[in-house]
Amino acid sequence: MRFSLVALAFIASVANAEVFFKEQFNDEGWKDRWTVPSSWKSKSDMGEWVQTAGKWHGDDANDMGVQTSEDAKFYGMSAALTSTIDNTGKDLVIQYSVKHEQSIDCGGAYIKLLPGGDKFDAAKFGGDTEYSIMFGPDICGQTKRTHVILNYEPKGDNTLITKDIPCEKDQVSHLYTLVLKSDNTFDVLVDNKSVRSGTLEDAFDLLPPKKIKDPEQSKPKDWVDESEIEDPESVKPDGYDDIPPEIPDPDAVKPEDWDDEEDGEWEGNMIDNPDYDGPWEPKMIPNPDYKGPWVHPEIDNPDYAPDDKLHAVCGKGCTHVGFELWQVKAGTIFDDIIVTDSLEEAQKFAEETFFAKKDQEKIMYDEVKEQERKEQEANMPDDSSDDPGFDMDDLEGMDDMGDEF
User: Fold this and answer.
1) Cα separation of 348 and 94, whole Å?
2) Span 228-249, average pLDDT
3) Which of 198, 168, 184 is nearest to 332 (CA)?
4) pTM of the shown model
5) Residue 219: left if φ>0, alpha if ψ -120 to 50, beta else—which one?
6) Selection from 77, 168, 88, 161 nearest residue 123 by Cα
7) For position 396, what pLDDT does the model report?
8) Per 3-state DSSP, what percentage of the chain is helix, strand, and coil (rounded to 5)?
9) Which of 40, 185, 200, 398 has its CA 20 to 30 Å from the CA of residue 152?
């Protein structure tokens, strides 16, 4: 059997891949692997995670995920990676599936990659916890985006991608993949199709700008940036200001029953004066001294320095993965999480999980929705039954009643 060089390279890549985390939620042990924070929010504010395959799923009903189950609640949980990530000089891939069974109107569904090591406090994990990567869909009203936020240590801030990435809004599962590459490029894929890619430097405001305005330069005082000037030969016509904007309507007629003593002096309606052209303005002509817009000269920014480690958001070690969310309407199912240094490994896992059940899930979804539609139609009241005393026979002879009204 012969293998192409591409196939051999793919096999080698998968064989050498390191998997830092993998979760399918198919066993009861997931509750031991994940910790729900007890000191983040009050117990009454926290929603419960439930294990389920959902209302529509693939062929295997035992293929589970975890779902948000209570409306208007916070949701949090974190798990330790199997090994610490240092992605300096290495690719990093985060991938997981999201299914909004509730037709979400407002709520997050993003995942976080977290530092902390032995000092990571799972009980307090929440929105204020430091993170290295935040990735995934977030929907609320008209805002529907796929977050990609990186914590760049030299900047000391979490930096959102500058141009929004749309997210999926329907009720079936979708696979979200983020690839940070060692050459400082990135790729965001949805259902294994690239939806945004580029360089980290161009897509994120991680570094100072390469160029800045020259502080030693300013617009010359004699710079002319008015493109037009008043025509010195343009003169307001005599009597122009005496033309009123409105005149009495020549067609207006004083009513015959108008009594000046009782009704006051009669005044006809006013109409727009066709001879009135508005306030007088002089004619404008091109300015012979016009130099165009002044452009501030730029110089190299002395604070700018390239960084070949922009990708290394886990350069000091990422040790945990977690969800911390708020959802107005609950029902989102998360599944098939993998964190690895190999896109090929992530794609192989996706073929074994997400893509193995994707088509059957859509078939089941369509069947469920069709059944719901039929049930709604069956439960719709018959218009003629709204009035229990209504009888179609009562309509007979109604035409003959017209003369009575």
Assistant:
1) 13
2) 92
3) 168
4) 0.79
5) beta
6) 77
7) 47
8) 20, 30, 50
9) 40
